[in-house]
Amino acid sequence: MPRLQDEDLFQTSTMTFGEHLEELRVCLIRAAAGLAVAVLAGFFMARPVVHLIEQPLRRALGNYYTERSIETFDGWQPRVAGGAALPYSRTELVDAVERHGLSFELREVHADRLARVLQPPADSPVEEQPPARSGGAAFDPDTLVPVLLWQPLAKDARVSITTLSAQEAFGIYVKAALLVGVVLSSPWIFYQLWTFVAAGLYPHEKRWVRLFLPVSIGLFLAGVSLAFFFVFDFVLDYLLQFNQWLGLDPDPRISEWLSFVLILPIGFGLGFQLPLVMLFLERIGVFDVETYSSQWRIAVIVIFVVSAVLTPADPYSLLFLAVPLCLLYFGGLAICRWLPAAGASPRHERQPVKK
Questions:
Q1: Contact 182, 34 (CB under 8 A)
Q2: For residue 106, what are the β-bridge partners?
Q3: 3 falls in which pLDDT band (50, 70, 90)?
Q4: What is the pTM of this model?
Q5: FRET pair for 256, CA 20 to 30 Å: which of 222, 279, 282, 333?
Q6: Distances in Å between the alpha carbon of 179 and those of 188, 203, 224, 292?
Q7: Which residue pairs, CB below 8 angstroms and at least 24 apart, start in 67-70?
Q8: Phi-psi bin for 82: left (phi > 0), alpha (psi -120 to 50), beta?
Q9: In the chain, domain spans
Q10: Neighbours of 338 (CB within 10 A)
Q11: Residue 162 has what DSSP assignment?
């Protein structure tokens, strides 16, 4: 039955358990329908989103291999005392890498043979030159000289993100559309969730839902933005350094990275609801300020456990979620303590003193 325009959204004040289940079913169906519409819209934006999602990983891989190349340059030693030195100074190398976006690989060649190929005699074409001696001559590694092979970092095969099957690209496209759909539909989904919560509250408590809804959406988007624009770089740097510590070269797949992108921002967005949930529970009388204040140690432990569940298994993402949540917990405590509770539940109102 459609709702009348002048009907209060939260008119019902008393509901049975069956009515609560029916209200939950309706809210979930509406939220799912909104998500489906947003995902359909996400299919039109998925391609640029995939390229946007690739950027943190490409940047982290570029930094990783650039640092390894510079370490290789710094650790270079000639094969023999007084042997050929590197053809570039460290200042030139850093300038080429940082200012011009180039990458390099350090290789070794025989200089005389390379010169013979690059500068053949004018009267002797390359194909007519005598082949290199191969009889019983041994290969002489001591005469090798270092060369640096340059290329744009964007074209470096080590920085490329791979797929292992033809159909994997389509799965990536669908996941990107799902990510766009979740972000676009988050205001509608939160509206439905808070509508369900409000349906079981007293009339004097329902006004808090109307206040909390826009703040809840803002906190969710803030958590998603923090994860995507700040946390990813630190987490990726740590994971790549761990690969280097184990002596492994990463070869990331875009589908695995996209799954990581789906989990971490949503976990941050949900975690950032903490101060709002604290204030809401305090206003409806489930908890009070004294409980929040006395049980803060248990709350910190719970925050770290929940952060470990909502984030991948690495310490950086856990800390980047747990530390802000701890700060948000004490911020929620401060808000509950100092925010005026005008019009709060009658259980919070001061009773008149009997004479």
A1: no
A2: 148
A3: very low
A4: 0.65
A5: 222
A6: 15, 36, 11, 35
A7: 68/244, 69/97, 69/103, 69/104, 69/105, 69/106, 70/94, 70/97
A8: left
A9: 25-47+162-340
A10: 8
A11: B
